[in-house]
Structure formats: C-alpha cells, structure tokens
C-alpha cells in the first residue's frame, strides 16, 4: 500500500503546474462519466476505503512559531518605552518636554505606517522568508541606535528604524501563517500571532521594572530586543518558503517540496491540484493599486479595510492609553494596572485560540464586538453623574478589564487571520499592506486626539461613541463577513470572488 502511494506521489512530482490542472480535469471528467454506473458500488466502497486524514499539525508548527517571533517583537517595541520613558528623557536632556516625549513614543508609528505600506510589495517581490529577515534587520539596527543614543535625535532615528520593522512584520506574519497552516488548525495558529504580541508587551513591562533602580537600564531594554530579532533572521533560513508564493512564481517543484515539509507527502497531490485550479484563470501581470479599489477585488478589500478601521475606532488603544490614569484613581499602582491589562489581554487571546477552529471566526467577531459595546456601556454608567464614589471607580476598572478581555476574544486576533483568508492569492500580500496601512493611520489619530476629545466631550459621551462603533461593527460583521473555519484558501476565494 505504502509503495503504491509513493509511486503515485513520485508521478505527481514530475508534473508541471499545467499538468496538474490537466490531471485534475481528467479525473473530474472520468468521474462524471462513470458516476451513474457506480452509484450502488460506491456505498460498498465507501465502507471499505478509509477517509483521507488531516495532515499532521506538528509538521507546520515549528515554521509558525518562528514566524510569530516577529509578533513578539512587535509587542515588545510597542511597550518598551512605557516604563523607561522618564529615565530616557532625563538621560537625554528632554525631561518635561511633552512634545519630545510624545515623539519618542509615536515616531515608531510613523515608521510602522511606512513599513506596512510597502510590506505587500516586499513580500511578493522577495518572498515571505526574506521579508521576515528584512523585518528583523531594521529592528536590530534601530534598537542598537536607540541603546547607544546620546541625543533625542539619535533616539528618534532609532525608533523610526524599529517602526519600519514593526510595520513590515505583522502583515507578513499573517500571510505566512495563513499560507503554511493546514486548514483545520489555521485559526489556532493564527491566534499565536496575538498571543505572541501579548507576550511581547508583557515582556517589555517585566524588563522595564528595574529601570528606576538601575541607572541606564533603559539601554539594556533596547539591547535585549536584538536577541529575538537575530533569532528570527537566522531561524528563517531553516524554515520553508510559502508554497503559495513559490507556485505563484512558477517554482512548482519547490512548492511541492514545501508542501511535503508542511503537510506530508501523501497530501502534496491534493494541495498542488487545488493551487493549479485556482491559478488557472489568474493573470500573471503585477497587481496595481487601482485593482484593489475597483472591480472584482473591491468587496474583499473593502471588508478588510473596514474591519481594521472598526477595530481601531472601537477605542481599544484609547483604553490602553487611559487605563493607568483610571487605575491610579482607584488606588491601583500603574505597574499593577499594566499587569492586570496584560493578563486580561493574554487570557482572552488564549481562549480565542481554543475556540477559533471550533466556533469559527465570525461568531468570535460578533461576540467580541458585542461584549466590547457592553463594556463601554459599563464605562458610561461609571462616568455618569448618577454613579459616584469608590463604586464608580471600581466599575470603571471592571469595564476596562472586560473591554480588553472581550477585545482579545475576537476583535484583536480575528482580523489579522481572516483577511489573508478572504483575499485572493494574487492580491493577498498587497491587499494586506493596504489594510494594515489603514490600521496604522487610524491608530495614530486615535492616540493623537483621544485626550483632547476626552477633555472636550467628557468620558460619558466619548465612551458612548466607542460603544456605538462596536455595535456598528456587529452589524457590519453580520452582513459582510463569511465564515472561513475549516475551508481551504481556494474554497474561500471561489466563494467570495465574483467570476468574470
């Protein structure tokens, strides 16, 4: 039995991409011709022939874990300056300068926008593995510049370099994890990205604890980040390239070898036939920006961009920015407050990982946005004139923790996984770049305007606006998002993309 399987597999290894498609068509035609004659015998044969099992998840797991190092770095660099900012400003001579302190925090966001904007073209041009290495390089350079900086200008240059790597990493990680994961665990593996980001944030918090006791410790915080970045760059040498990208480049034999490493030899034939069928009608020309906003691709790009916009307009980053102040009002130290927020975020992400391939992406999104709306309702009650005293403070703290927890259950991890699933292979990388750019632009403006809006509108009205956005997200997801649980990327593309 094993010998026959290996012979069949070896035959397919000699076929070109076009031959795969022809073989698939011939199999389909033969099946149609003999279907009527085999109705009765099919039942008997079905009981005798075992069903093809799912590929082993253990084969693809190491590749996914290496890719998520980029998400760990993303979370780490988001939080690395939070605790040490006071020490950094004192050592570099801009203590008390709110603008300079704000630039140290936000310069990386500008770099992230640039990195995400070009991430699709980089991932398509040099491949997913090289893109990861290019993501690690500016993070290492930027961390070294920041760690050795003697001036504010040097710190800002370092943060800008780090930001470009931060912007490049998340979309490429989403692409790679989606393309190398078997469909039955793709949701679980996609959740690793969010978990790694949470661990990076918590790691930055823990590393920053000694900063007030040890002079110059903030430099160590930056130096430490070069270790996982170097591991990412080196480990990617041993990881397989995305077979989807290889096939798109016409490197069929390499795509077969990649599938064998990721799925096992017995699943290569099926995987290659699916790719050949899907690519048979695709154009080979480069994808232009106009294609992402007009015609048959508009719907999926619109869904992806709107999901990221709603994710950021829900107020999640505003809650993160303002949480320390609320906890401090309730008598909770900032370090403990950050720990509570981190634990809530991580706990929700772990639960989402266990549910992603069981209940599906759409259900998690609906429940998450609805839960966030309810959490904002709690915040509105806590901020109202009818609720005062210690009770309102604890209610506000509870509302924040509930908001972060429900965000991590769906609105946080799902968009980054769902978008590479619903984007056709031809535009996947560049469409992710556009959507992540929307994410960073809105993230920047929410961070810039939140405190001013809070001062002018008051917490009750502002939180009501955030809650309204969350309910709008529920309606949008209900009407536009399709369930992708357990489906191959090819099945999802055929279901979503209008045929010409």
Taking pLDDT < 50 over at least 5 consecutive residues as the criterion, the unreliable ranges are 1-14, 27-51
How many runs of DSSP E, i.e. beta strands?
A: 0
Distance between the termini: 43 Å
Overall morphology: globular
Helix content: over 70%
Largest sheet: none
Radius of gyration from the alpha-carbon trace, in angstroms: 25 Å
What does the average pLDDT come to?
82
Structural class: mainly alpha
How large a portion of the residues is in β-strands, by DSSP E? under 5%
Please identify the oligomeric state. single chain
Q: What is the number of helical segments per DSSP (H or I, 4+ residues)? A: 24
Order of helices and strands: HHHHHHHHHHHHHHHHHHHHHHHH
Q: What is this structure's SSE topology?
A:
Elements: H1 2-13, H2 17-34, H3 39-48, H4 57-67, H5 69-79, H6 85-92, H7 98-126, H8 128-148, H9 152-180, H10 186-207, H11 217-224, H12 226-235, H13 243-248, H14 252-263, H15 268-279, H16 289-293, H17 298-313, H18 316-329, H19 334-355, H20 361-383, H21 390-411, H22 414-422, H23 428-480, H24 489-496
